[in-house]
Amino acid sequence: MSASKFWSSFYEIYEALPRQGPGDRQSTERALRLLPPLARGHRILDIGCGAGAQTIDLARATEASIVAIDNHQPFVSRLQTRAAELGLADRITAQAGDMNDLHFPDGSFDVIWCEGAIFIIGFAKGLTAWRRLIAPGGHLVVSELCWLRADRPADLEAFFKAEGADIAGMADRRKDIVDRGYRLVGDFVLPAVGWWDNYYVPLAATLERFRVTHAGDQEALDVAARSEHEIDLYRTYPEHFGYGFFVMQRA
């Protein structure tokens, strides 16, 4: 399958979703409660914001100004429209950008936030690369795929290996955090509602429509099948893997 075909099918599926990955407002707010209050004058950088579901939640729960970046312009445009509709455009600046190549000055942000997107750059690499952007005493908050049990079913491991997923245990993530110059403030596991209600249920409905629209296009159907397989694996092994939500402070 060509890369262009994969990405055109991928974005057709995921642009329709309220969230482009697992998450929920309650978990975003739970992570926020581990931080000092964010008032006017504080700055948040939301990296890999997608269509901005968590960006909106951050704006509603704080008084901080937010810069939200994503490398896919349609997601950025959708967030800009939504922020304007909600009267939040004065505090949300959405822009296209590459998390691997951020040109903000050192210490620009009080908080860097990244829900479900740090895998793009890699967990350890992201912690290292983004640290300079955090003001002294500031915080980094990320959610990332983690093993939740020591026993790992072979078909589950094979899936993540084929996808090139950077998956490690919660303890390994905590060690990475300390080794890269942070103090772990707290962590928790994203609840199942963040996977099902907000992500997999709308994804399954979108995939059903996508299959009808692309019934004669095997390459497009193969892209849909990958997402369907992921849903099946989470349905089978919800206790084996999930998202760890990590709140850390620049040491």
List keywords for this structure.
single chain; 251 residues; alpha/beta; Rossmann fold; eight-stranded mixed β-sheet; 8 strands; 44% helix; 23% strand; globular
Describe the structure.
It is a single chain. The protein is an alpha/beta fold and 251 residues long. It has one domain: 3-Layer(aba) Sandwich (Rossmann fold), CATH 3.40.50. Helix 1 packs across helix 9. The longest helix is centred in the last third of the chain and has 22 residues. The radius of gyration is 18 Å and the shape is globular.
Question: TL;DR?
Answer:
By secondary structure, the chain is of the alpha/beta class.
* Terminal Cα span: 45 Å
Major beta-sheet overview: 8 strands, mixed
Radius of gyration: 18 Å
Number of domains: 1
Uncertain runs are: none
* Class of secondary structure makeup: alpha/beta
What integer is the average pLDDT? 96
Proportion of residues in β-strands: 15-25%
H and E string? HHEHEHEEHEHEHEHHE
Number of strands: 8
Could you give me the name of the CATH homologous superfamily? Vaccinia Virus protein VP39
Number of DSSP helices?
9
The percent range for helix content is: 40-55%
Tell the overall outline: globular
- What's the CATH architecture name? 3-Layer(aba) Sandwich
CATH C-level class = Alpha Beta
CATH topology: Rossmann fold
